[in-house]
Amino acid sequence: MQAAIDAYARGLDACDPMQVGFAMTPVAMVVSDPTLPDCPLIYVNPAFERLTGFPAEEILGRNCRFMQGPLTDADDIVRLREAIAQRVPIELDLLNHRRDGTPFWNRLMVAPVFCDDGSLRYYVATQIDVTVERHRVLMLEQDREALAAEVAQRDADLAAHNARLRLALKAGGLGTWTLDLPEMVLTASSGCKRIFGRPLGEPFTYEQLLAAIHPDDLPMMRAAVERTITHGEPYHIEYRILTAAGDQRWVSIQGDLQHRADGTPLAMTGFSTDISTRKFAEEHRAVLARELTHRVKNTLATVNAVVSQTLRDAVSLEDAAAAVTGRIASLGAAQELLIQDEVEGASIGDIVDRALLPFKDRDGARFAAHGPSVRLTPEITLALAMALHELATNAIKYGALSVPEGRVAIEWSIRHEDGERRLFFCWAEHDGPPVTPPSRTGFGTRMIERVLRRHVRGGAAIHYPPTGVRFEIEAAV
Amino acid sequence: MCHVLIIEDDWFIADHIAQLVESAGAVTIDMADCEEDAVAQALARRPAVIIADVTLAAGTGPAAVDRITAQAGEIPVLFVTGEPRAFRPRATSMRVLHKPVDDRLLIATFRAIAPPA
């Protein structure tokens, strides 16, 4: 063995530039002799000693597997052994250990050397420390993976953000749009098309937008667009549109101007909202306010009429005060009925109950009211309620209700005569003191005869037979 | 003194106005509670003065007045209305009073526009 090592050393020619290069190169190089048992190293260059930390005298004569250690990959060793056994060159990165045990990545090249007769004579091997390179590659791979993960996260965040924005726009009933300048090319979101009643799958052009705007509002809209493009004013406008289906909507549009780097206008972009509900509510409120004002004025005029006429008929101030209070209260009760039954009108039973409420005794036995459920128009409701109030007031003062045994029967019915529905209503006092017709026409009687008669378009009259006052209405309903 | 047409759909107010103008010298009074009825009554008997509400349950007072004067010629008109103060009649000669009206003011206005006896 030592003889083979010495023989090889003696064979080296100090004048051979190849061999000088071998000795001087920073690349670690070794030669082993496969003709000897276990293919020992017979030559290592100084670079190998520096790389591995092994002095030549310690390793010459040994198989170079001493560089393998616990961290060396078993599969790499198998590949290396197979190449050597098959006498083919191999290059691979192998985790080796230095003399002090520290691992390093060894880019190993092993090649067989043959004699002229084709027999295997040597193996020559080079080793380069690629630990730093391998580390750098590893770091780069880790960086790339981290970057990829970050990009994926950002994509996901962006998608989630977009989804939230779309949801918010939809929930808020908002559409978005962009008008490219100066070509005036409109791009509208689905929400925007929905607001304008346009098919979602088709483009919505600027010309179609102009055609959809209510003709009365179009000049104002064009002027606002012009102001925004020319002066950069914020675009905020409300106008009416007519959809293809023919319904009118109110829309609110807000937008702003975007500029190119050179300062020229690039596009107008913004939101659109359907504000029809708010606009119609505003209109409805205005109508209601007007109607309320009207009603209040009419009611005051009615109160004025009641007071004025009551005062004219009054025999004393006390009498006037009581009558006015009672009449205004009865107006109030009738108004309440009207508001409760605004749509279909009040029923006669309700009108009678409400009008007579202030006059009923504890058991209510003095009034007997019978009749079917019949609804009356608002005018007749008020007139009948007031008439009943007057009748009851007079009955208490002078009629049946001025004595304990006196009673009032109130009856009404519907009869069909000549294809017409006719209402018969009767107020009949009985068991009271003998009746004498009044000497002068009071407010109540005048109201009943002049007003109610006109309004029911039939007959309305008060009779004064000695047995009890009778008030009868006959009317088409 | 004269014949008066009252166009008013609130019977209480109509009756009250009727009593006021009666006391102010109206000899005969017709009452109408809608535009159609008002036109029919005025054409049946030409009033010397018209006292009209503006908003009626059916039609309007001003429309009734226009239809009447188109056929019967100009007639003094007094609107007694619950409409907002902004209401202006077609002709400046037409008077407007706002509900609720002071009885004395209504009588005075009626006397001012009624033709002399």
UniProtKB/TrEMBL annotation, chain B:
It comes from the Bacteria. The modification 4-aspartylphosphate is found at D53. Residues 3-114 form the Response regulatory domain. Signal peptide: none annotated. It holds the Pfam family Response_reg. Keywords: Phosphoprotein. This is Response regulator. It comes from Sphingomonas kyungheensis. The lineage of its organism: Bacteria, Pseudomonadati, Pseudomonadota, Alphaproteobacteria, Sphingomonadales.
